Amino acid sequence: MFCVECGRDGPTTDGLCATCFATRHRVVRPPDHVDAARCRSCGAIRIGNAWTHVDLKEAIPLLIREAVPPLAPFKEVRFLHAAREEDANNLSLDVTAVGRYGELEQADRFRARLRLKPSLCETCTKQKSRYFQGILQVRGEGRELTPKEVRTVRTFVQARVDRARGAGEFVSRLDEIDGGLDFYVSTNALGKVLAREVAGTFGGAVTTSPKLFGQRGGKEIYRVTSLVRLPPFQVGDVVRHKHAVSEVLRVAGFVTIRDLASGEARRFKARDLRGARRVEAERFEATLERSESGEIVADHPETGRTQSVSTRDAAPGRAVVVWTDDAAYVSALPMDASKA
Ligand SMILES: [Zn+2]
Ligand SMILES: [Zn+2]
Q1: How many angstroms does the Cα of residue 122 sit away from the middle of ligand 2?
Q2: pLDDT tens for each residue of 133-149
Q3: pTM across the whole model
Q4: Is 334 left (phi over 0), alpha (psi -120 to 50) or beta?
Q5: Which of 130, 142, 297 is nearest to 205 (CA)?
Q6: Count of CB atoms situated within 10 Å of the CB of 43
Q7: Which ligand has an atom closest to residue 42 CA?
Q8: What per-residue confidence (pLDDT) applies to 64?
Q9: How far is the CA of 1 from the centre of ligand 1 (A)?
Q10: Which ligand is nearest to the CA of 1?
Q11: Which residues pair with 36 in a beta bridge?
Q12: What is the CA(52)–ligand 2 centre distance, in A?
């Protein structure tokens, strides 16, 4: 085939050789600049209509594609680019647009500036306006939260919400009150999920109470308060439950307590341990010995007082001892598992 323009022999597209085709048709119309909104609070980048949490590196090809459509007769175009930072909000782009039309592949090169416009995404706008729908309350059952619980629950909730940030979830306010925590969260669903997860991790029971808040478009709007009550005790606590003295082994989800005399461990729902009461107890490492009468005994390391060990199957040797006013037991927990 001969090119109708220059007469050169070779493959043609619409009668033109590749060189002549390229002088008549460009793959894209090079833009002066590509603009993109970037949230100055969370760094999300607006791509199309969506605020997206991606690295700038991953966003650039999407932004170019968005801003630079192919010109007819090219229907598809792929981009190769190199980006160089000019300053915090401007990058210079060196772009090659590769278009395909029938058998012809044509590459056009252009330069453009990518301008990142500092703005505020929808989620951050709502969060900064202190918008909330649901409330998550975390309390202790019949007690205040310990400072360590306050810290760990805060960190846990924050990490969980940060992961849901891309879905527009956030905490707009956090109050530390009445020995507990109140989180004001973006949706009722988030409040409920967080309550379940806090209870699953730290133990405790969840109750939810919806309150009619208003109407919008004929629909009733509810605010749901999800309340987690953490168990009345913590790992390492010693409790009296149904006349048996037990130590608390686990409080995640269910509460596992171990009868210190029989050594048997059992799981309870937190609410089924409401009748259990804490017993003052010390915990220390000691060497158990067999007395002349054949009992296993332990000495208090400070007072020197000796008590017989009431735990079945206790044997001489080093052990972690649970010491109450009227008995000594062998603990199944390591020394450092106690007390928050
Ligand atoms: Zn030609
Ligand atoms: Zn944002």
Answers
A1: 7
A2: 999 999 998 889 988 89
A3: 0.65
A4: beta
A5: 142
A6: 13
A7: 2
A8: 95
A9: 11
A10: 1
A11: 116
A12: 9
Ligand 2 center from residue 119 Cα (angstroms): 8
CA of 129 to the centre of ligand 2 (A): 13
Q: What is the mean pLDDT of each run of 10 residues along the chain (340 residues)?
A: 91 93 94 93 92 91 93 93 94 95 93 95 90 94 87 95 86 92 96 94 88 85 93 88 92 87 92 85 94 93 94 94 95 74
Helices (H), 106-211: 122-128, 147-163, 188-202
What pLDDT digit, counting tens, does each position of 79-123 carry? Answer: 999 999 999 899 999 999 999 998 899 999 999 999 999 999 989
CA 4 / ligand 1 centre spacing (Å): 7
> How crowded is residue 216: how many other Cβ atoms within 10 Å of its Cβ?
8
Model pLDDT, residue 339:
44
Whole-number Å distance, alpha carbon 25 to ligand 1 midpoint, is 13
**What is the rounded CA–CA span in Å between residue 268 and residue 273?**
7
**What is the H or E stretch that residue 57 is in?**
helix 56-67
Cα of 107 to ligand 1 centre, how many Å? Answer: 17
Nearby residues for ligand 2 (ion, Cβ within 5 Å): 39, 41-42, 44, 121, 124
Task: List alpha helices for 203-328, DSSP H.
Answer: none
How remote is the CA of residue 222 from the centroid of ligand 2, in Å? Answer: 26
Strand pairing of 328-330 and 180-185? unpaired
**What are the C-alpha distances in Å from 196 to residues 145, 222, 308?**
18, 19, 43
